[in-house]
From TrEMBL:
The keyword Chloroplast does not apply. It holds the Pfam family LRR_8. The keyword Repeat applies. GO terms for cellular component: dendrite; plasma membrane; postsynapse. Gene3D superfamilies: Ribonuclease Inhibitor. InterPro entries: Cys-rich_flank_reg_C, Leu-rich_rpt, Leu-rich_rpt_typical-subtyp, LRR_dom_sf, LRR_TM_domain-containing, LRRNT. GO terms for biological process: visual perception. Keywords: Leucine-rich repeat, Repeat, Signal. Residues 330-381 form the LRRCT domain. Transmembrane segments: none annotated. This is Nyctalopin. The gene is Nyx. SMART domains: LRR_TYP, LRRCT.
Length: 471
């Protein structure tokens, strides 16, 4: 009996917790007992205000997709066990300072997709000292009060993309425990040297799809722990020489979809642990020697979608590039300067799809199919730049009238009245394929018409000759 009695004693607290969870469940919600307490689901319930009471044991409350507009002070009462609170896709326009008081253990707060929530008071998140994740996605925020996040010393992750920020919020500075910051798809125009001060634990920063035109020197100076930096799809045309200096733990750097015209050797000098480098969809025409020399651990380099005609092996020396290289959608000139790349493609199998744009003799071929000839002294010979001429087997178009053709036509008209119809036809046809002298009629003695014709032609020829020069 002892094992049976013991099992009843163990199950009794669970039963009591389930009963308490169901007993205090709001009418429009569903509640269930979970390992950490009580889960309350009020999503899509058509609520226009916060329920007056929640189970005291509530560990998670979901109020997504309702019609909530305002959160008053202590909007949720006192819930000592609450760890997860979600208010996404509502119509929140104002949150009273102190609305989240009474939630001492709250670790995740999701306020995403409240498009009317355009302003937050500096004391909005007061008393949330345990908060680790804050989601402010798509809230139409123009700015964040500088002291707003200072009340959140434990904050690890901030999601604030799809907002209207024009600069990196000053509120981020000094968040010593922040590890992830999502600021993509906004209107941020620059990363200033003071934007990221004090973020010594930051491991992931996303600024993609903003309007960033400038990254100031030293902007990432305090971010030595950064592992993933996304700056793709912005308006960057240039970077400072030591743009990423000190980021020795960086593993992913995405600079794709910008307006960069060159790749400098100083940009990546400190990135010895970099694994993924995206430089695709830029306007790059030149890569400096040694630009990738320290990237010996690189798994993939994306240079596709640029304006590269040549890529020197010196860009990778003295390091040794081991990863995959993506080079498609570039106007490659497949001459001897790319012979090393052709050999590498054959030997490693880690480079593919390098279509040639020139010289003409290999245009349209993939570089892997180009055969480089050798001179007598063993040097590489560039493929020929062919000059094609057009040949058509069809009859040529009617030529432009010349002096001879005009003269022949005039002569035919002069002689036509004195010849039978059949002779005129034959004479006109023959003029196109004979010399001028052969085209003149045979003039016998005493033929007055012929003499008059010659006199006329004597005065006419100089005029026709001058006109022919102009044509």
């Amino acid at each position: 009996k002892r094992p049976f009695e013991g099992s009843v004693v163990v199950a009794w607290p669970c039963t009591r917790a389930t009963e308490a969870c169901l007993r205090a469940c709001p009418a429009a919600c569903t509640c269930s007992s979970v390992e950490q307490g009580c889960s309350v689901r009020c999503d899509r319930a058509g609520l226009l205000r916060i329920p007056a009471e929640f189970p005291c044991e509530a560990a998670s409350i979901d109020l997504d997709r309702n019609g909530l507009r305002i959160l008053g002070e202590r909007a949720f009462g006192t819930l000592p066990s609450l760890r997860h609170l979600s208010l996404r896709h509502n119509n929140l326009s104002f949150i009273t300072p102190g609305a989240f008081k009474g939630l001492p253990l709250l670790a995740e707060l999701r306020l995403a997709h409240n498009s009317e929530l355009r302003y937050l008071h500096a004391r909005t998140f007061a008393a949330l000292g345990r908060l680790r994740l804050l989601d402010l996605t798509a809230c139409s925020l123009f700015s964040v009060p500088e002291r707003l996040l200072a009340e959140l010393p434990a904050l690890r992750e901030l999601a604030a993309f799809d907002n209207l920020f024009r600069r990196v919020p000053d509120a981020l500075r000094g968040l010593a425990n922040l590890t992830h910051a999502h600021l993509e798809r906004g209107r941020i125009e620059a990363v200033a040297s003071s934007s990221l001060l004090g973020l010594r634990c930051l491991r992931s920063l996303s600024l993609q799809a903003n309007r960033v035109r400038a990254v100031h020197a030293g902007a990432f100076g305090d971010c030595g722990a950064l592992e993933h930096l996304l700056l793709n799809d912005n308006l960057l045309a240039e970077l400072p020489a030591a743009a990423f200096c000190g980021l020795r733990h960086l593993r992913t750097l995405n600079l794709g979809g910008n307006a960069l015209g060159r790749v400098a050797r100083t940009w990546f000098s400190d990135l010895s642990e970099l694994e993924l480098l995206y430089l695709d969809r830029n306007s790059i025409t030149f890569v400096e020697e040694g630009a990738f020399q320290n990237l010996s651990g690189l798994l993939a380099l994306h240079l596709n979608g640029n304006q590269l005609m040549v890529l020197s092996w010196a860009a990778f020396q003295p390091g040794f590039f081991l990863g995959r290289l993506f080079l498609f959608r570039n106007p490659w000139r497949c001459d001897c300067h790319l012979e090393w790349l052709r050999d590498w493609m054959e030997g490693s199998g880690r480079v593919a799809h390098v279509p040639c744009a020139s010289p003409a003799s290999v245009a349209g071929l993939d570089l892997s199919h180009v055969v480089f000839e050798r001179s007598l002294d063993g040097l590489c010979v560039d493929p020929e730049e062919l000059h094609f001429t057009t040949y058509s087997p069809l009859p040529s178009p009617e030529p432009v009238a010349t002096t001879v053709s005009r003269f022949s036509s005039l002569l035919s008209k002069l002689l036509a009245p004195r010849a039978p119809v059949e002779e005129v036809a034959n004479t006109t046809w023959g003029l196109a394929n004979t010399k001028l002298s052969d085209s003149l009629p045979s003039c016998g003695v005493g033929v007055l018409g012929c003499k008059v014709t010659f006199v006329f032609l004597f005065f006419l020829l100089p005029h026709l000759g001058g006109h022919g020069k102009e044509t």
